[in-house]
Write a structure and sequence with these properties.
- With 261 residues, the chain is an alpha/beta fold.
- The protein has helices at residues 18-29, 41-52, 70-79, 103-131, 152-168, 191-204, 208-217, 227-237, and strands spanning 9-13, 33-38, 60-64, 85-88, 134-139, 178-185, 249-252.
- A 7-stranded parallel sheet has the order 3-2-1-4-5-6-7, with helices on both faces.
- β1 (9-13), α1 and β2 form a beta-alpha-beta unit.
- α1 packs across α8 (227-237) and α4 (103-131) runs parallel beside α5.
- The chain is globular and about 55 Å long.
- The two termini are 29 Å apart.
Length: 261
């Protein structure tokens, strides 16, 4: 299927590895020009070089910056101000007992996983509307639908973003060709998932492989998702064909969520 987005420009955050890289890769394969952003310059440069070698003519740029800071966002927008596609993504806050989280912990979580996506949407959405096309995909978490007890910081910040997007997606932007959706990953084979397993192992005293196996066996698909699978879903949400989907929370979790709705 031709997704109809070749030649568009995308900003993909947190794209040096994991799910962000999966999204950048899928977009580049569709002929989308991509500006990749992440904090680690070495990993980001390597990832960008890898994508550029298989870009099918698309431009691949990269910028090492902390997108969760005002300075980082300013640096990105100084390199390029207009984007047709925005994929927001930032590392999740640490797991732990909510009793141990102070105000600074909550503010860091809100800055990274709620306020940063809102700021990026604010900076890019009017240009999208003026051009008559825009696709915004926020990478959030399956915990938005099924909260995880030790991920209180993530549960709160990402749910806040979900509420904002629910209203914004249904504003006058919808009639101007701009869609805003959230993509909710379950357990994927990423460093983030591994760090959660390590935290559970340390807390419970169970071996790491036992923790991972228990999580895997609780998924109907009996496996963890792959970043390339996630990226393919992201690319579809950015496509011309997905123009009638907006304000949705798209769950990719191998069937783990037990609810009907």
């Amino acid at each position: 299927m031709d997704l109809g987005i070749s030649g568009k420009w995308a900003l993909v955050c947190g794209s040096s590895k994991g799910l962000g890289l999966g999204c950048a890769k899928a977009l580049v394969q569709e002929g989308v020009n991509v500006l990749m952003v992440a904090r680690g310059a070495e990993a980001l440069q390597a990832a960008a070089a890898q994508l550029a070698n298989h870009s099918a003519g698309a431009t691949v740029q990269w910028l090492a910056a902390d997108i969760t800071t005002e300075a980082g966002r300013a640096a990105v927008l100084a390199q390029r101000a207009d984007f047709d596609i925005l994929v927001t993504n930032a590392g999740g806050p640490p797991a732990g007992d909510f009793r141990n989280f102070g105000r600074d912990d909550w503010m860091r979580a809100l800055d990274a996983n709620m306020l940063t996506p809102i700021a990026l949407i604010k900076a890019t959405v009017d240009g999208m509307a003026a051009r008559g096309f825009g696709r915004i995909v926020n990478i959030t978490s399956s915990a938005v639908k099924a909260p995880i007890d030790v991920l209180g910081l993530s549960n709160g910040a990402r749910s806040g973003l979900t509420g904002v997007v629910a209203g914004l997606a249904r504003s006058d932007l919808a009639a101007k060709g701009v869609t805003i959706n959230n993509l909710l990953p379950g357990a994927f084979a990423t460093e983030r998932q591994q760090s959660i397993f390590q935290g559970t192992s340390a807390r419970t005293g169970q071996p790491l492989d036992v923790v991972a196996a228990a999580r895997r066996n609780g998924i109907p698909a009996k496996r963890f998702g792959l970043p390339d699978e996630f990226g393919a879903i992201c690319a579809f949400l950015c496509s011309q064909q997905a123009g009638y989907m907006t304000g949705q929370n798209v769950l990719a979790d191998g069937g783990a969520y037990p609810g009907t709705f």
